[in-house]
Design a protein that fits this description.
Layout lengths: L2 E5 L3 H13 L3 E5 L2 H10 L4 E5 L1 E2 L2 E2 H11 L4 E6 L4 H9 L4 E4 L4 H32 L10 H13 L6 E4 L6 H10 L8 E5 L5 H9 E2 L11 E2 L1 H4 L4 E5 L6 H13 L1 E2 L8 E2 L3 E6 L3 H6 L5 H7 L2 E4 L10 H16 L8 H7 L27 E5 L5 E5 L3 H13 L27
Parallel strand pairs: 1-2, 1-3, 3-6, 6-7, 8-15, 8-16, 9-12, 12-15
Antiparallel strand pairs: 4-5, 10-11, 13-14, 17-18
C-alpha cells in the first residue's frame, strides 16, 4: 500500500484517480491547487505524487522542484493535457519519474506506474525481513538456556507473541532483553514487518523526539528535508525502546499520548498520522522505585507494562553457563579459524565458581580488609588445613585473589572476615614470607 497525493485543478481528474487507487488499497489524498499541495507536502511524507503541469498560479514543474527539496525519496509523476517538448525536457531535467499524457490511457499508465512503485516498497520491506531472518537462522539472535527460569521465559514468549499487547522487559544489563524482544517479534503475526530498535538513553531529549516522531523541513536548524520517525518506520511492526527508564519526563508525556491515541505528529507539523506499532520497552532500572521518587510517570508505566517480563542474571541460573560457554567458543572458533575442540572440565569448573559471576563485596570491587584492619592491605594471614597459622607480608595480587576466593567460598560476606583456603590452593603461588 502506497501513500499517494493527487494534485490537479480539475476536480473530475482528482476524483477519478482517487477512486481508482483507493479501490486498489492505496491511501490517497487530493489537492486542487499547488498551494494546497505544498501545505500537505510540508506536513506529510508521500510515497507517490501525481501532479498536473498546468495549474493556476504555479506549474507542476515548480511543485516537482519543491518536492525534491523537502522529500527527495518521493516518486513524482507529471501529467498534462497539452504536451510540449519544453515541458517534457524540464520534467526530465528536474527529476520527474514519469511523464504521462492525459488521454484515454491515462488511468492505465498511472496504474502501472503506481503498481511498480508499490512493488518496490514491498521489496524493500521483504529485503529487511530476509536480513533479519538470516541473522536469526545463523544463530546471532538465538536465546540460549536450559534452566527452569529460561524455560519459563521461552513459554512466556510463545504465549505473548501472538498478541498485540505492549511488553515491558526488565533485568540487569547483559541479560538479553533485546534478544527476548526480537524473539517476541519474530514469533508474532508482525514478523514480516519491520523490527526497529532505539536506545532512549543514547539521545538528548530534542533529538529523541525527532527520532521517534520525525520532522518536517524547517522544523529546526539542519532540518533540510522531511523525515519520517521511527514510529512510522515501524508501522505494522514492532518498536523496541531500550533504556526507557532514562527518558525525561517531558518525553514521557509525549510518549504516553502516542500510546494512548495511536497517532504521531512530526516536529513542525500540525497534522497527526495514524500508526500501528507494537511497543516493547526495556530497562535495567526498578521503575517502581523511580515512580516513588518522582522520576517516572506512573500512568506511562501501566501503559507499557501490560505484559511484564523479568530476566534473571546469569548468577541466578548457573546451569546455563556451560551452554553459553560452548556457544561462544563455537562462534569465536569459527570466526577466528582456531582448531579448538572444546573446554576442559577444570576450565568449566572455574567458570562455574561464584567469584566469576559478578559478586562483589561492599566497596564495589575493592579488595577486602585483611587481618591488619587496613583496606587493601598487602599484609594478612590464613590458617591452612593443617591448622598452622601463616602470616605474610608483601603478597602480590595472586595471593590476595586466592584469599578473596577462599573467603567467598567459605560463605564470609564481611570485608574484614578471615579468608580460609587450603594449602593446595596456594601451591601454585610464589613462596610467602611465613611466620609461625
Amino acid at each position: 500500500m502506497a501513500h499517494i497525493l493527487v494534485v490537479d485543478d480539475e476536480k473530475s481528474i482528482c476524483e477519478l484517480l482517487e477512486i481508482t487507487f483507493r479501490k486498489e488499497g492505496h491511501r490517497v489524498e487530493v489537492a486542487n491547487s499547488s498551494e494546497a499541495a505544498r501545505r500537505r507536502m510540508e506536513s506529510q511524507i508521500f510515497d507517490i505524487i501525481i501532479s498536473d503541469i498546468r495549474m493556476p498560479n504555479s506549474t507542476g514543474v515548480d511543485l516537482l522542484k519543491f518536492s525534491k527539496e523537502i522529500a527527495p525519496s518521493s516518486v513524482f509523476l507529471l501529467i498534462t493535457g497539452v504536451p510540449t517538448v519544453e515541458t517534457a525536457i524540464a520534467a526530465i531535467n528536474f527529476g520527474a519519474d514519469r511523464y504521462v499524457i492525459k488521454d484515454h490511457q491515462l488511468v492505465d499508465q498511472l496504474r502501472r506506474a503506481v503498481q511498480q512503485v508499490a512493488e518496490n516498497l514491498k521489496w524493500k520491506t521483504e529485503a529487511g525481513y530476509l536480513r533479519r531472518e538470516l541473522r536469526r537462522l545463523t544463530g546471532l539472535d538465538n536465546i540460549i538456556g536450559r534452566s527452569p527460569k529460561m524455560r519459563a521465559i521461552f513459554d512466556l514468549i510463545q504465549t505473548v507473541a501472538p498478541q498485540s499487547s505492549r511488553v515491558l522487559i526488565t533485568g540487569e544489563s547483559g541479560t538479553g532483553k533485546e534478544l527476548v524482544a526480537r524473539a517476541i517479534h519474530e514469533n508474532s503475526p508482525r514478523a514480516q514487518a519491520p523490527f526497529i530498535t532505539i536506545n532512549c538513553g543514547a539521545f538528548p531529549e530534542t533529538l529523541l523526539e525527532s527520532e521517534l516522531f520525525g520532522y518536517m523541513k524547517g522544523a529546526f536548524t539542519g532540518a533540510n528535508e522531511n523525515r519520517q520517525g521511527l514510529f512510522r518506520a515501524a508501522h505494522g511492526g514492532t518498536l523496541f525502546m531500550d533504556e526507557i527508564g532514562n527518558m525525561t519526563q517531558t518525553m514521557q508525556v509525549k510518549l504516553y499520548r502516542v500510546l494512548q491515541e495511536g497517532k504521531v505528529r512530526p516536529l513542525g507539523s500540525n497534522e497527526e498520522i495514524d500508526v500501528d506499532v507494537r511497543v516493547i520497552a526495556a530497562t535495567n532500572k526498578h521503575l517502581e522505585k523511580e515512580i516513588a521518587e518522582g522520576r517516572f510517570r506512573e500512568d506511562l508505566y501501566y501503559r507499557l507494562s501490560v505484559i511484564p517480563i523479568h530476566l534473571s542474571p546469569l548468577r541466578e541460573r548457573r546451569e546455563d553457563i556451560p551452554l553459553l560457554a560452548r556457544a561462544f567458543l563455537e562462534r569465536f572458533r569459527t570466526s577466528m579459524e582456531k582448531p579448538v575442540d572444546g573446554i576442559e572440565p577444570e576450565a568449566m569448573r572455574c567458570l562455574d565458581r561464584p567469584s566469576h559471576l559478578g559478586w562483589r563485596p561492599a566497596g564495589q570491587g575493592q579488595w577486602p580488609r585483611f587481618r591488619s584492619g587496613r583496606r587493601g592491605s598487602r599484609e594478612g594471614w590464613h590458617r591452612g588445613v593443617s591448622g598452622r597459622r601463616t602470616r605474610f607480608r608483601g603478597a602480590d595480587w595472586g595471593h590476595r585473589a586466592a584469599l578473596y576466593r577462599g573467603g567467598t567460598r567459605a560463605g564470609w560476606r564481611s570485608p574484614t572476615a578471615r579468608c580460609r583456603i587450603t594449602e593446595d590452593e596456594l601451591s601454585f603461588l610464589p613462596p610467602l614470607r611465613q611466620e609461625a
